[in-house]
Specification:
By secondary structure, this protein is of the alpha+beta class. It has one domain. The protein has 4 helices and 4 strands. The strands form 2 sheets. Strands 1-2 form a two-stranded antiparallel ribbon. Strands 3-4 form a two-stranded antiparallel sheet. A hairpin with a 2-residue loop joins strand 1 and strand 2. The longest helix is centred in the middle third of the chain and has 17 residues. The two termini are 27 Å apart.
Amino acid sequence: MRKLDKNYFINNIKNILLDKKIPKIDTLYINEFMIGKNYCYAINDNKELIKIQKWLNSYFQNNISLNNSAVAFRKKYSYLHLFEPHKQNYYFLRLDIRSFFHSININDIKKTFKVYFEDTYIDESTKQSLIDAFINLVTYTYNGLKI
């Protein structure tokens, strides 16, 4: 996959550029709710941010090959696809990692996605790199925790 260049990236995010950079996601645009004992977060009232996140999701899903064993959150896959390679087996172990998304380190996200972005700034005056702008678009900081 070729790297996401500055012009293509900016052209798709230009409607939320603020002072020539991408700000962190504001708490005003986050809806916090509980499912059981777990806190969940969703973006509300920011159609541009939702549109950009959908574009990013589509861009990466269409340009990065996924491992065949990855079935979660994939179109046209269900929970049953997880078991397909193991259908002849008798025993299964299902594990769920507590606070999985909260446990993801921001530096790991950066390191993983950095290879897909040109090493340049959104604007020379702000010194915000494309990867840092991307991180601000796809993460949310709540009480010091990146989500």
